[in-house]
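dude i think i finally got it to work??
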Amino acid sequence: MNILGIGTDIVSVKRIADLVDRHGDRFLNRCFQLEEIRYCQSKPVSMAASLAGRWAAKEAFLKALGRQVTHIPYGEIEVIRSKTGPVSLKLHGRAADALDLMGGRVCFLTISHEKNFAIATVIVSH
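look at this
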């Protein structure tokens, strides 16, 4: 496997909860795809943690791109779950173009949650 980029991000669950409280649907619709929102809203006890994990994944992806980052909206980076559980990225628009530009074909993603924080790591390879 030829690694082209790696990125990690950690985010406070409270920070994301505060953004949802302050900006509601405007924040959610700007930064997340509809399926991401639906999934996170289906987990009322851990909604903020689920959103925080996805936010961290989006940041980690941008860091993994390195210099290839031009203004890529968070909404164009989608975290999806397979039926068996693992998460992965589905890229849209400029996010997909940036991955292609760097020669990336595969993005590996892992997300972990703790009471106050969520962390994600993305590895981009051929």
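The helical segments are 13-31, 34-41, 47-65, 93-101.
im so relieved honestly
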